[in-house]
Design goal:
By secondary structure, this protein is mostly helical. The protein is built from twelve helices and two strands; from the N terminus they run ααββαααααααααα. It has a two-stranded antiparallel ribbon. It starts with a helix and ends in a 6-residue tail after the last helix.
């Protein structure tokens, strides 16, 4: 018994060390497992479909599933195309002289206030000159070569990561349970029943959690797009889609979604008075406030508390621990990782009290 728990603790420690040291590989594996779990139902259905009395080859079913994901992302990207095109047109038609004068007036007022109360003793116009020189120096010192190199490196890393995730997920779907069977074969016979029960429970809870996240995203997208559309906010579907995806980031996601909506609304609208601008901001914030009330009262308790069977305070602490360790990515993956360890420890503790093997 002591030897078994010693091995168990050792395996957990080695797993955590491996995950920390090889963080990129760990991320690829976790992302591949999630992608495989999402695509497995569609792949299995396609594989069971008969054409001329023959099953569709599993590799073909997997490729078709990949194609459906790519088609979905391409379709969603078209929601952002009108917004991006609109911003390009706005930037290309900017009146630089007008912006110059618009910025100059409030800066001169601030400078006048500082002169009035004798807070500065520089020459008039120095504040705007300093701001202009700072901007010019920033533009002058901008290293375009390093910027392009950074963009290329980021693009290359993203492309390699996508290929790695697609490659790993492909074989996870192709083998269809082989990895699970191989892991089970490594478990000693006396602990096989307990390990299978633990693995099954973890798999079920994670499946419920992923399904809950999908429901949450659809709920936020539906209510946000409906509310923004009814209030006449432009690009309501684009704003709602961004908000739904951003909401995957606990706590910070709703703020990002609302901020994006306000920025889009301000940058694409024509306002003759400040009242119109304030009214638009009020409409956007009102929609997101109602969406968050629905999400916090109805959706999140069902997803986080019921699906992973954990107290909300546990979830709160775990999310912030994940943020401390891995930033935004850590916040997103904190609950699934915590679920795995929490259920495993509970199941093995129950097994320690109930199974005969631990009493001999």
């Amino acid at each position: 018994m002591q030897r078994f728990f010693g091995y168990l603790i050792l395996c957990i420690v080695l797993f955590l060390l491996f995950g920390w040291y090889f963080s990129n590989i760990t991320f690829y594996i976790v992302a591949s497992l999630i992608l495989a779990a999402i695509l497995r139902p569609l792949t299995n259905r396609l594989h069971d479909f008969h054409v001329m009395g023959q099953h569709i080859p599993r590799w073909a079913a997997i490729l078709f599933s990949y194609g459906s994901i790519v088609l979905l992302f391409v379709s969603l990207s078209f929601l952002f195309y009108p917004l991006i095109n609109n911003q390009i047109e706005i930037l290309s038609s900017l009146d630089l002289e007008g912006i110059y004068e618009t910025v100059k007036q409030p800066v001169l007022k601030i400078e006048g206030f500082l002169f009035k109360y004798e807070l500065i003793d520089n020459k008039p116009g120095f504040l705007f000159t300093e701001i202009r020189n700072s901007i010019l120096n920033t533009v002058k010192d901008f290293d375009f070569t390093s910027f392009i190199g950074g963009v290329i490196n980021t693009t290359s890393s993203l492309f390699i990561g996508l290929l790695a995730i697609a490659f790993i997920s492909f074989f996870l779907l192709l083998e269809n349970g082989l990895l699970r069977r191989n892991l089970m074969n490594l478990i000693p016979n006396p602990y096989f029943e307990l390990s299978v029960a633990t693995f099954t429970k973890v798999e079920k809870l994670l499946s419920n959690y992923l399904s809950g996240l999908l429901i949450q995203m659809l709920t936020i997208f539906s209510f946000a797009s409906l509310g923004l559309s009814l209030l006449g906010v432009e690009y309501s579907l684009t704003i709602a889609l961004f908000a739904a995806v951003a909401n995957l980031i606990p706590y910070a996601g709703p703020i990002l979604g609302a901020s994006f909506g306000i920025i889009v609304g301000i940058s694409t609208g024509n306002f003759e008075t400040n009242i119109e601008l304030n009214y638009l901001i009020f409409k956007i914030l009102s929609v997101f406030a109602i969406v968050q009330v629905i999400d916090n009262i109805l959706v999140q308790p069902l997803i986080f508390s019921k699906s992973v069977k954990a107290h909300p305070l546990e979830i709160f602490v775990v999310i912030f621990v994940g943020a401390k360790i891995g930033g935004i990515v850590g916040m997103i993956f904190a609950i699934p990782v915590y679920t795995i360890f929490r259920v495993s420890i509970i199941e093995f503790f129950n097994g320690y009290k109930s199974y005969r093997i631990f009493k001999t």
